[in-house]
Amino acid sequence: MQRLQHRTILGETIRAYRKQAGLTQEKLAERADLHHNFIGEVERGRMECSITSLLKIATALGVRVADLVRKI
């Protein structure tokens, strides 16, 4: 299970930036052109996130992809 720790770290980071921006999962999903269920699964560390999706999320949050993966 430790090998999936990167998912948890990424999810927690995305959640922190989302909350800092004052966005709901639904609003972030809308801005990123992704499904809100996907955002929730990524935030909970249950789903892998492609580079394309990660870029969409970062853009919607107004941050760099590097900011989202810094702690991994």
Number of beta-strand segments: 0
Rounded average pLDDT: 96
CATH superfamily: lambda repressor-like DNA-binding domains
Main sheet properties: none
Task: Supply the helix-strand structural class.
Answer: mainly alpha
Radius of gyration: 11 Å
If classified by CATH, what would the architecture be? Orthogonal Bundle
Low-confidence stretches: none
Strand and helix layout:
Layout: H1 5-20, H2 25-32, H3 36-43, H4 51-61, H5 65-69
Helix pairs in contact: 2-3, 2-4
Q: Could you walk me through the main structural features you see in this protein, from its secondary elements to its overall organization?
A:
The mean pLDDT is 96. The chain starts with a helix and ends with a helix. The chain has 5 helices and no strands. It has one domain (2-69): 434 Repressor (Amino-terminal Domain) (Orthogonal Bundle). The protein is mainly α and 72 residues long. Helix content is 67%, strand content 0%.
Features:
72 residues; 434 Repressor (Amino-terminal Domain); mainly alpha; 67% helix
Brief digest:
With 72 residues, the protein is mainly α. Helix content is 67%, strand content 0%. The protein has a single domain, classed as lambda repressor-like DNA-binding domains (434 Repressor (Amino-terminal Domain), Orthogonal Bundle), CATH 1.10.260.40.
